């Protein structure tokens, strides 16, 4: 795949994704998948967002619920971090990049929805931070804070920085082995900070 030069140079930046999932006693509010700071995500909203990704991309780019929950849990902090680095992920840039991605994947006249663009912005922020700092220390700090301060339903899984970094390394390796170049960010669609607990509902596609 060849990424358009003007898209390759596009800057990336900020915003919070509102969604929400299921909980058990002692693990947050029933019906809520995660709460981190002011972001609350329900399982129903994760299902709806996954369906929206499938619709917008003609089924060619469909993240699972764990990836979507990861983008939601970390998105605001990731976007703030890229903005602080002078590489804000603006909504217009994310729309352009996501549209080009879907087009190159084979979707017919894609028009990514606002919800998918917001989710994509968080994913792009994670990608930018990962490639700008191979140690992933900034990402680990954000993930550790989310894990410590957030509430996550066991139905989504256990959130940790270790699981996230392992997933990022896998995405980077896949992008490099596939020679994706400026489209390397697409492998981050599967990046997740969650590992299995008792009921890995969100791991389904």
TrEMBL record:
It comes from the Bacteria. The keyword Signal applies. Keywords: Signal. Residues 1-20 form the signal peptide. This is Uncharacterized protein. It comes from Demequina sediminis.
């Amino acid at each position: 795949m060849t990424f358009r030069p003007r898209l390759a140079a596009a800057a990336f930046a900020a915003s919070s994704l509102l969604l929400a999932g299921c909980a058990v006693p002692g693990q947050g509010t029933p019906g809520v998948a995660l709460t981190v700071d002011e972001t609350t995500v329900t399982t129903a909203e994760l299902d709806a967002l996954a369906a929206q990704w499938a619709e917008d991309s003609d089924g060619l780019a469909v993240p699972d619920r764990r990836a979507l929950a990861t983008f939601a849990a970390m998105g605001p902090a990731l976007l703030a971090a890229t903005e602080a680095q002078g590489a804000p992920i603006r909504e217009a840039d994310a729309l352009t990049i996501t549209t080009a991605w879907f087009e190159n994947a084979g979707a017919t006249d894609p028009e990514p929805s606002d919800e998918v663009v917001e989710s994509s912005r968080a994913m792009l922020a994670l990608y930018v931070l990962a490639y700008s700092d191979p140690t992933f220390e900034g990402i680990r700090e954000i993930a550790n804070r989310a894990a410590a301060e957030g509430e996550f339903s066991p139905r989504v899984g256990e959130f940790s920085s270790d699981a996230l970094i392992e997933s990022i390394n896998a995405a980077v390796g896949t992008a490099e082995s596939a020679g994706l170049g400026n489209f390397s960010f697409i492998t981050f669609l599967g990046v997740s900070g969650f590992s299995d607990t008792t009921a890995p509902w969100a791991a389904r596609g």
